[in-house]
Amino acid sequence: xxxxxxxxxxxxxxxxxxxxxxxxxxxxxxxxxxxxxxxxxxxxxxxxxxxxxxxxxxxxxxxxxxxxxxxxxxxxxxxxxxxxxxxxxxxxxxxxxxxxxxxxxxxxxxxxxxxxxxxxxxxxxxxxxxxxxxxxxxxxxxxxxxxxxxxxxxxxxxxxxxxxxxxxxxxxxxxxxxxxxxxxxxxxxxxxxxxxxxxxxxxxxxxxxxxxxxxxxxxxxxxxxxxxxxxxxxxxxxxxxxxxxxxxxxxxxxxxxxxxxxxxxxxxxxxxxxxxxxxxxxxxxxxxxxxxxxxxxxxxxxxxxxxxxxxxxxxxxxxxxxxxxxxxxxxxxxxxxxxxxxxxxxxxxxxxxxxxxxxxxxxxxxxxxxxxxxxxxxxxxxxxxxxxxxxxxxxxxxxxxxxxxxxxxxxxxxxxxxxxxxxxxxxxxxxxxxxxxxxxxxxxxxxxxxxxxxxxxxxxxxxxxxxxxxxxxx
Length: 474
Fold this sequence. Notes:
Blueprint: E1 7-11, E2 27-29, E3 33-37, E4 44-47, E5 50-53, E6 58-60, E7 66-74, E8 79-85, E9 90-98, H1 102-115, E10 128-134, E11 139-145, H2 152-159, H3 164-183, E12 187-188, E13 197-199, E14 205-207, E15 214-215, H4 235-238, H5 246-261, H6 272-281, H7 294-303, H8 314-317, H9 321-325, H10 333-336, H11 343-362, H12 366-369, E16 376-384, E17 387-390, H13 392-409, E18 412-422, E19 429-438, E20 447-459, E21 462-472
Parallel strand pairs: 1-3, 16-21
Antiparallel strand pairs: 2-3, 4-5, 5-6, 7-8, 8-9, 9-11, 10-11, 12-15, 13-14, 16-17, 18-19, 19-20, 20-21
Helix pairs in contact: 3-5, 5-7
Binding site for ATP: 96
Catalytic activity: L-tyrosyl-[protein] + ATP = O-phospho-L-tyrosyl-[protein] + ADP + H(+); L-threonyl-[protein] + ATP = O-phospho-L-threonyl-[protein] + ADP + H(+); L-seryl-[protein] + ATP = O-phospho-L-seryl-[protein] + ADP + H(+)
Family: Belongs to the protein kinase superfamily. STE Ser/Thr protein kinase family. MAP kinase kinase subfamily.
């Protein structure tokens, strides 16, 4: 059972009254709970230890499980950070949302409804690991899969245009995710665009940002709300008419033209109103004949049909000749995504994984310290607060005595910061760790320390500790 701490519970939202305000009218607070009222969702409770859905499903994850590393970006409704999930030994994206703002709260609930019921194996969707409440800041933190290649908008900036065979392979995977969202989740994304399709360095596209998505009761139901990015909005939405899943197909078709040609196909320089007129009155923009295959032009043509009922659903588009044309093409999406590889980002990740695993083993006692032996060579050196050791066996002997002493007093390492910088073309790096030695003894203050590691490579991707210096801060 989750701990009984500050919770956020969702209940049917009352009609607004004169006493309510834009931000606080649907929140009730007591000393022990914070209750958010909504018309659309079943109860979801957030504690500092995780999130519980109605039906008893508990996602256990807390602030202490996540080490925030750096800010990735900021939108209208959230701030996204890169973090390290210590229990899973993996990098994650942490979306921080202010729960006291009604609009951002609604977008958070959309994200949760879209992702937390989805199996992590659903191709083309970011994985959801959990969410937790941070009472001091009034924020909910949603922990998601970290997708390391950036968005398709980022990819486009690097390459200028995406080759047609690469784009077909990507589109096949995107359509699989859209088919799941439409058929299984009954969800209209409403904001499909290059910036909302992430790419992993392994070549896997992932749809993200479900904040303005709409959930409808059946595949025959329709939406009426005017939300989304106007640049990718379908004609029926611009006309403020009822719309449904075909509006996402229009957005995808427009995004594909942009990704293939390197530029947005309509004139957007005259402002949103004139852009909407272009979309409504001009013929759908097709990739130029002679530069692209007729199969691709036809694929875009059916996606950009002005009448929504003429746009095929996502699962039907998976059978389109353009998708089939490149199904057996030898192009490697992983090789293509090397354009987004940043060796410094990878070095930072190596440093973080190394540091957290190193101290986890050191805190595991003398029996675990032996597992650190492969990190050292015969030439490795250690200076531990004045003491010196050279060579793997001597260093492990010293670390074993440290681990024995720490185990006797139940001392553990708490990491505050991990910094990394490259040292040269050979791939070596300097890792600087700041942290505290913490003991549960009553009245004992934490002992701050700073430790520096020089990591060198045996061969590309395989590191050992060449030099190591620890200094206890007095």
